[in-house]
Amino acid sequence: MYPRRTRAAPEDRLRGCAVPSTMLLLFAYLAYLALGTGVFWTLEGRAEQDSSRSFQRDKWELLQNFTCLDRPALDSLIRDVIQAYKNGASLLSNTTSMGRWELLGSFFFSVSTITTIGYGNLSPNTMAARLFCIFFALVGIPFNLVVLNRLGHLMQQGVNHCSSRLGGTWQDPGKARWLAGSGALLSGLLLFLLLPPLLFSHMEGWSYMEGFYFAFITLSTVGFGDYVIASCLLSDTRKPNRDWQTLERTLKSSGGLLKYRLLAGHGGSRL
């Protein structure tokens, strides 16, 4: 007689399926990353190349028109302007800006640090501030998670309370839970995604889609930093609506100032 086969325990079957399912999950994860890589490369690669060629063309035009200016000096000026912008200086007018590391700007940076958004438009430049940022984040990030967990618990209690009240009124607990959950979801969408773009459009001059994009990137804690709330970061009265546009205008204004000085030094004639 053949020996009786014993059935595998459920734990053994689950253990045997864990490796293939994990490999499948990793494959799907890598495939999703490959999809994002291809799409972003296609959509943004050509625009980046066009921008780089335009910048190089303008730089060479400046060097050809003003032969007294050599390329290393111009590159040094560009590096100084970029570093000054990173340090919070504003070169868009003749007045001295108070910079971005004021009270509101520092508060904005603290919030973006402990919420792990990290827009990247502000970063510490001194070693003391960098060391403090490490310890501040080590304590602040878990503290922020505790606060969010408590707020989420309170919101869940509110939804459950509304559900029980509606269930007692309609005598249908299932429908009451669905209605309370849908109301909470709709309120969250309105409060955090759909209504803020209207405020950003009024305060920052953005379009509704730009404001919606900023709200989503902020809520998802991605925080690219291409869009920031300028009123909290700059004391300039013109308040640029995009962080990279601020740097672009700064470089252009510095280039215009350089051209003016060169023209003045040569009696207004172009070389």
Automatic annotation (TrEMBL):
Q: Name the keywords, alphabetized.
A: Ion channel, Ion transport, Membrane, Potassium, Transmembrane, Transmembrane helix, Transport
**Places the protein is found:** Membrane
The Gene Ontology biological process annotation of the record reads: stabilization of membrane potential
InterPro entries, per the entry: 2pore_dom_K_chnl, K_chnl_dom
Q: How does it sit in the membrane?
A: Multi-pass membrane protein
**SUPFAM superfamilies, A to Z:** Voltage-gated potassium channels (SSF81324)
Q: Does the keyword Cytoplasm apply?
A: no
Q: List, alphabetically, the GO terms of the cellular component aspect.
A: plasma membrane
Potassium channel domain location, by residue?
A: 95-156, 192-229
What residue ranges are annotated as transmembrane? 23-43, 128-148, 178-200, 212-234
**Any idea which GO molecular function terms this record carries?**
outward rectifier potassium channel activity; potassium ion leak channel activity
Q: Which family does it belong to?
A: Belongs to the two pore domain potassium channel (TC 1.A.1.8) family.
Q: What is this protein called?
A: Potassium two pore domain channel subfamily K member 17
In the record, what lineage is assigned to the organism producing the protein?
Answer: Eukaryota, Metazoa, Chordata, Craniata, Vertebrata
